[in-house]
Specification:
The protein is α+β, with helices and mostly antiparallel strands. The chain has helices spanning 3-24, 189-195, 284-289, 304-321, 324-366, 371-385, 393-412, 436-451, 458-475, 480-499, 501-505, and strands at 71-75, 78-83, 88-96, 99-102, 121-122, 130-135, 141-147, 156-162, 169-170, 175-178, 197-201, 212-215, 218-220, 226-230, 234-238, 248-251, 255-259, 264-265, 270-281. It folds into 2 domains: 3-21 and 310-505, no CATH class; 31-299, Distorted Sandwich (Beta-galactosidase, Chain A, domain 5), CATH 2.70.98.90. The relative contact order is 0.13.
Length: 506
């Protein structure tokens, strides 16, 4: 890496860091969880209304829910607690590589509450799924069933209203919600409030495969393939039918509320609403298997198309090695092979500039008091010798999209969460606990800077000497998987410079 290349790297990373920081500030919702249940076979919309009580009773605001009064049940692989009031989920412990994670961050309000003015009781006679039942003051029987998923079929929430009376009954505009927010793993809790968002996926046709929209508070008409809330690692998504539900309403940037369209149920009749849902970690492989576009919730950043390809490649390499760390290392080596022609051109440009240093030094002495003449003479020297001072920057310019895409991929890939590499690296999604990788990476960058031709300007020389230190501190808190990529990249570059030194200087 010559000085121009180092300068390009630092400026590019600085711009990206500032840009990425700005983007993250767009997501600033209140901290709240959202374990959830719902997903139907049609896209969701957005328009909403507050929970509506049955016509027979004007419900008062329900009291906050106490998890101690809840019924502990099994929802898929998760251990959940369902409160009698509205059959609300007040706890959802999702099994993850480093232990169970509580996805309900605010149990006082509950999740997936329906008819919150009613007290539901579990029907333990039902074997396939969980059923909770309640009776309204007007005699309308409401049952709420949590149906398990199977394979690529997501789980569902089914609400059934049965009218055993001799008069028509209005089911009312009852609501079902996810949020506010979602819980997350312990190391993400400090950042979680910024990362939570309400989001939806548009149908194909408004983009290659639809596009992800971050939803602000208000009513959203859609249409959407799915709608929900997420954070970096977890997603609660609903797929309500537009025939059964009004457009969704978003509150507080991380709470989505669905409102059922009113239905009049004849005497002796019934009506059912069914909403498929997803609640859990954003693992690319299993989200993709549903075929619902849920994997689009994974934030790959600006170069998302490239990030997805990297994750697919990493998954394939992981299948070969059985270790995500070795998969990252092999992917880095493969990228170095693909970029070698450009790297070779960069190294040759750096070697040519190094040969010109004595002549440039003479020009600096000759035109010490005339910067304009010095600049003109230097450019003429470059032209005469066929040297390009910017020739070493091209590989880094082309590599910056790769770095940015890998940064977002390795930072947001749930597959790396809790994935060990070797020795002390027990979690590739977390920082190196002993800072060994970033320090070694900084040392390699320092060695590279000493191998490159010195900058003519003393001030620039000092900046170039400080660059490895700046990068080391910048990478201290980066995911160790990302640092492993950059360390491998630096190591290969250093080896190439040493191995090709004689040819470059010939």
């Amino acid at each position: 890496m010559d000085r121009n290349l180092l300068l390009a790297v630092s400026l590019s990373v600085a711009v990206y860091a500032a840009w990425f920081g700005f983007l993250e500030k767009r997501f600033n919702p209140p901290p709240s969880p959202a374990p959830f249940a719902a997903d139907a076979k049609a896209p969701a919309s957005a328009k909403g209304s507050a929970p509506s009580a049955a016509p027979a009773a004007a419900p008062a605001a329900p009291a906050k829910l106490d998890p101690a009064d809840a019924d502990e049940v099994q929802l898929g692989d998760a251990v959940a607690k369902i409160h009698p009031r509205g059959a609300s989920v007040v706890s959802f412990l999702s099994p993850e590589p480093l232990g169970r994670v509580e996805l309900v961050s605010d149990p006082a309000h509950g999740l997936f509450s329906t008819f919150p003015e009613l007290s539901f009781a579990r029907d333990k006679s039902v074997k396939n799924g969980l059923v909770y039942a309640a009776v309204r003051a007007d005699g309308l029987k409401i049952s709420k069933q949590f149906l398990p998923g199977a394979g690529t079929v997501p789980p569902r929430v089914r609400v059934l209203a049965v009218n055993p009376t001799r008069k028509p009954a209005d089911a009312g505009a009852w609501t079902l919600s996810v949020g506010p927010g979602l819980g997350t793993i312990e190391t993400e809790k400090e950042e979680n409030e910024k990362l939570q968002r309400a989001l939806a996926l548009t149908p194909p046709g408004k983009g290659l495969n639809g596009r992800i929209e971050t939803l602000k508070p208000g009513v959203h008409a859609g249409p959407f393939r799915w709608i929900g809330v997420d954070n970096r690692y977890f997603l609660a998504a609903l797929l309500p039918s537009p025939e059964l539900f009004e457009p969704a309403r978003v509150e507080g940037q991380a709470s989505v509320i669905l409102t059922a369209k009113p239905q009049t149920i004849p005497p002796g009749g019934s009506f059912a609403w069914e909403v498929p849902y997803y609640l859990g970690a954003k693992g690319h492989t299993w989200l993709t298997s549903y075929g619902l576009g849920l994997e689009r919730s994974i934030d790959f950043g600006y170069f998302a198309w490239l990030g997805r390809q990297f994750l697919v490649a990493l998954e394939w390499l992981h299948g070969l090695t059985g270790n995500w760390g070795w998969a990252i290392l092999l992917l880095t080596l493969a990228l170095q092979v693909l970029l070698f022609p450009l790297t070779w051109k960069s190294l040759r440009a750096a070697a040519a500039m190094k040969k010109l240093q004595p002549e440039i030094a003479k020009l600096q002495q000759r035109y010490a008091d005339d910067s304009a003449k010095l600049s003109a003479a230097t450019m003429e020297l470059y032209k005469t010798k066929g040297a390009n001072p910017l020739g070493g920057c091209l590989p880094m310019i082309l590599q910056m999209p790769i770095f940015i895409a890998l940064f977002n991929t390795l930072r947001g890939a749930w597959e790396l969460h809790g994935a060990a590499w070797i020795f002390w690296i027990k979690d590739l999604s977390a920082k190196d606990p002993y800072y060994v990788l970033p320090v070694v990476m900084g040392a390699l960058m320092f060695l590279q800077s000493k191998m490159n031709p010195p900058a003519g300007d003393p001030a620039q020389q000092k900046v170039m000497m400080l660059m490895p230190i700046m990068f080391t501190f910048m990478f201290l808190n980066f995911p160790s998987g990302l640092v492993l990529y950059w360390l491998t990249n630096s190591l290969v570059s250093t080896v190439l410079q040493v191995a090709l030194k004689d040819r470059l200087e010939a």
